[in-house]
Specification:
The complex is a heterodimer of chains A (193) and B (460). Chain A contains three helices and nine strands. Chain A is of the alpha+beta class. Chain A folds into two domains: 30 residues; 143 residues, Rieske [2Fe-2S] iron-sulphur domain (Rieske Iron-sulfur Protein). A three-stranded antiparallel β-sheet of chain A has the order 1-9-8, with no helix packed on it. In chain A, strand 8 and strand 9 form a beta hairpin. In chain B, helix 3 packs antiparallel against helix 5 and helix 7 packs antiparallel against helix 8. Chain B has two domains: 257 residues, Cytochrome Bc1 Complex, Chain C, CATH 1.20.810; 144 residues, Cytochrome Bc1 Complex, Chain C (Up-down Bundle).
Chain lengths: 193, 460
């Protein structure tokens, strides 16, 4: 029997329309993987009180489930940052993978040199580095002061800048933040209003 | 259709008249599946792998009856299983020991394939299904490891999901999409639970069936690498074949008993196996704000993890030299003009990528390649004979060098990174890849011994 071209065409059209339906049905399944409205809402800005942090002390706060570090740096600690300008991979924080906010794109990576506000998550594979270590204590840091990631050995200075030739490509991210008073920082919102 | 006349009596006859498939499949895969008579110790691991699979499925079903996939409840529910559920500790330790046992058995099963060329024509599909099973196992192990919601669960998942963050452009968004949140959280735990208990097991079972069906279509290889189907008796049975059941079922059961003795010795006396089967840090509940001071994946992932850690920006130069060397060698060997052009262009593109994209990305690529390269073996191996028995002696030693490199990489992956350890893992990463990448050349070299027509076999 000869092939009925009309019917062949009808089959092709039916298959194509059916295929579109299958693809359309797949959309909500794929979309269900994205963060839910509840997860998004949990990402609201938080206020951090800096008044309880002693000189040289690091305090960890939580924002969006991430550890946000506030390190109150002593003048001696700030000196240690200046000393390693030549040893860090991106001293001016110009890389764009984890863009540093403009107000923190300076040597100390902060609005006020005294306080470093950074997300304590290594830009390599997301472990939380330990520290701050003073110089000459940690084998991987050598004489430099800073943080060490326990997972793959990336090291960071006290401004969260990654040292050269380490697995982590970027400096520790600086979250969007602003001072609402002298000792209170709002993390998650840096609008000027 | 002609009516099926059964030769069985009683209940079996009643069934056979209504569903002849049962007995015909039993014959095809067991009582009349002719396996080479010269199988040795190395042929027990397929059967053992099926046993462990059954252990994992049965214990898994019982664990799900008490486990709660909820970030607030998961850790406590596992401890509840361990302390309060009658027999719960036994079921859970069987499942955790089974996970490691699965990888031990599968690694030895794959080593057998490497030794006797079991992936060579006509068994390429058997090997590919096997590699896919291996990938599924890795997925099962990874997704399952998050469920106890301990510190290692949490930070291990954090590291692996962030691997996808290394993909240029879409990376960070992709990582959020996989987690379903900005950090590993309840959403991540729930979806990993779904993958671990239903999605991957279904795929895995399908692949196991495909692996065995493909094997039974072409027939098993053997330590001599001789095709037993080439020499058949008058009734069409291979002269060197014996029915799988009862001969190899009994053989396998003997080794299964010994295996289970070891399995339960570990389960009863050292269930954590010194922190290798269950890591110490996983007895601490997940804390998103603190990474444990030392994190390492479970032992079966550590060789690939070492490869990941070995890729630093200084090492990229060495990789570039290696790539150029490979390209030069390939260009000298291949004469097809289009292929040569494609190789030259491909090499230049990858070389540019080496120095424009982050080393972190290439670490992820090479880690993936260290697993996926197994798929290529049937075509990388160009040796004229299958079995190591008839290949030049140094071929076998090369394989042993690779195995040692694999084991040392595995050891280094469990350790803290130090400059010396990183250097060693960089050298061994090169050894690991050179073994496969240069295989099309070295596997043809040397003096091969004549392969016998029939298998070597001495009756006991």
């Amino acid at each position: 029997m000869p092939v009925d071209e009309e019917r062949r065409k009808a089959i092709a059209v039916a298959a194509a329309v059916g295929g579109v339906g299958v693809v359309a049905a797949a959309v909500p399944f794929v979309a269900s993987f994205a963060p839910s409205e509840r997860a998004k809402a949990a990402g609201a800005p938080v206020e951090l009180d800096l008044s309880t942090i002693g000189p040289g002390e690091l305090k960890t706060f939580e924002w969006r489930g991430l550890p946000v570090w506030v390190l109150r740096r002593t003048p001696e600690m700030l000196q240690s940052i200046k000393k390693v300008d030549g040893e860090v991979a991106d001293p001016k924080s110009v890389r764009t993978q984890y863009p540093t906010p403009e107000y923190a794109r300076n040597e100390f990576r902060s609005i006020k040199p005294e306080y470093l506000v950074a997300v304590g998550i290594c830009t390599h594979l997301g472990c939380s580095p330990t520290g701050p270590f003073p110089g000459g204590v940690n084998a991987q840091l050598g004489n430099a002061q800073g943080f060490v990631c326990p997972c793959h050995g990336s090291t960071f200075d006290l401004a969260g800048r990654v040292f050269k030739n380490k697995p982590a490509p970027d400096n520790l991210p600086v979250p969007p933040h602003k001072y609402v008073s002298d000792t209170v920082v709002l993390v998650g919102d840096d609008s000027k209003a | 259709m002609a009516e099926h006349k059964t030769t069985y009596s009683g209940l079996l006859g009643w069934i056979d008249e209504r569903m002849p498939t049962l007995m015909s499949e039993y014959k095809k895969h067991l009582s009349e599946y002719y396996a080479p008579k010269n199988f040795n110790f190395w042929y027990i691991f397929g059967g053992l792998a099926i046993t462990v699979l059954v252990i994992q499925i049965v214990t898994g079903i019982f664990l799900v009856m008490n486990y709660k996939p909820d970030a607030n409840l998961a850790f406590a529910s596992v401890e509840y299983i361990m302390r309060d559920v009658p027999g719960g500790w036994f079921i859970r330790y069987m499942h955790s020991t089974g996970a490691s046992a699965f990888f031990i058995v599968v690694y030895l099963h794959m080593f057998r394939g490497l030794m006797y060329g079991s992936y060579r024509k006509p068994r390429e599909l058997v090997w590919i299904f096997g590699c896919l099973i291996f990938l599924c196992l890795m997925g099962e192990a990874f997704f399952g490891y998050l469920l106890p919601w301990g510190q290692m669960s949490y930070w291990g998942a954090q590291v692996i999901v962030n691997l996808f963050g290394a993909v240029p452009l879409i990376g960070p968004d992709l990582a959020i999409f996989i987690r379903g949140d900005y950090v590993i959280g309840d959403a991540t735990l729930n979806r990993f639970f779904a993958f671990h208990v239903i999605a991957i097991p279904l795929v895995l079972l399908g692949l196991v069936v495909a692996h065995i069906l493909a094997l039974h279509d072409v027939g098993s290889n053997n330590p001599d690498g001789v095709e037993i189907k080439a020499k058949k008796d008058a009734s069409g049975r291979p002269l060197d074949g014996i029915p799988f059941h009862p001969y190899y079922t009994v053989h396998d059961i003997f080794w299964l008993v010994l295996f289970l003795m070891g399995f339960f010795a570990i389960l009863f006396f050292v269930p954590e196996f010194g922190g290798y089967f269950l890591e110490w840090n996983n007895f601490i509940p997940a804390d998103p704000l603190t990474t444990p001071s030392h994190i390492a994946p479970v032992w079966y992932f550590t060789p690939y993890y070492s490869v990941l850690r070995a890729i630093t920006s200084e090492f990229m130069v060495v990789l570039a030299v290696g790539l150029i060397g490979m390209a030069a060698l390939t260009l000298m060997t291949i004469s097809n003009a289009i292929l040569r052009g494609a190789i030259a262009v491909g090499t230049i593109v990858v070389l540019l990528g080496f120095f424009t994209l982050d080393p972190k990305f290439w670490g992820v690529v090479l880690m993936g390649a260290s697993v996926l390269i197994f798929f290529g073996l049937p075509w990388l191996d160009q040796s004229p004979v299958k079995s190591m028995r008839y290949r030049p002696g140094w071929h076998f030693w090369l394989l042993i060098v690779w195995v040692v490199a694999f084991l040392i990489l595995g050891y280094l992956g469990t350790q803290q990174p130090t400059p010396t350890f990183t250097l060693i893992s960089q050298v061994l990463t090169l050894v690991y890849f050179a073994f496969f990448a240069l295989m099309p050349w070295w596997s043809r070299m040397g003096t091969f011994k004549p392969v016998p027509e029939r298998v070597n076999f001495k009756a006991h």
